[in-house]
Amino acid sequence: MNTVNEIRLARLAGCLYLLLIPMGVFGIMYIPEFITVAGDNSATLANLTDHATTIRLSILCAFAIQLTQLFLVIALYYLLRPYGVIAARFMVLFTLVTIPIALLNELSHITALLLPESDLLRGVFNPQQLNALTLFLLELHRQGIMIAHIFWGLWLIPMGYLVYRCGFLPKIIGVLLIIAGIGYCLDTVTFFAFATDRYLIAQYTFPGEVLLPLTLLWRAYKAKQTV
């Protein structure tokens, strides 16, 4: 990382990656778990009604995540491309596949919010049927996240390879990113193979995703002092 352009790209990528972390925790992890009460459909439906504004914020957060990730992968592509063009292209490809999946998945939450307010549907379906459909949409959203999950893992594998090769970042971060990517992929496989989320491991394999942006910002800062 010797040029002003590389320093700027590293700083941008670090900031965008750090921004993804709180948005991901809020929009993808906290809100769905907060709304859904295991084994209590009535409480889940009550949460959906009582916290509709919060859910709408989580939808906006999901949109912001995809936009941020798009700019992030562009910055990483130009920063890491010299160390492996093919790997860099796969990193972008997996991200571009993920974005429409994640965006379309939010239609489940949007529809779940619209159902109780729809005069047209209330004239066709009784309340019990509408409630069942709403619960189905919430579960569909959860399943959709797990489809996107595998691509969140796949983009990390070529990124980890590039980080390992680049020379201006610790190789261990590249290894940790590959491990994180494998963790995401295994989560999707076990989730759909066994119809349970008991075996999810990505929550334990993520350290590389935190270390990368912090290290990028630190290296950009140090490099700036010498330019």
TrEMBL record:
It comes from the Bacteria. The chain crosses the membrane at residues 12-35, 55-80, 92-115, 145-164, 176-195, 201-221. InterPro entries: DUF4386. This is DUF4386 domain-containing protein. The keyword Transmembrane applies. The lineage of its organism: Bacteria, Pseudomonadati, Pseudomonadota, Gammaproteobacteria, Oceanospirillales. Keywords: Membrane, Transmembrane, Transmembrane helix. It holds the Pfam family DUF4386.
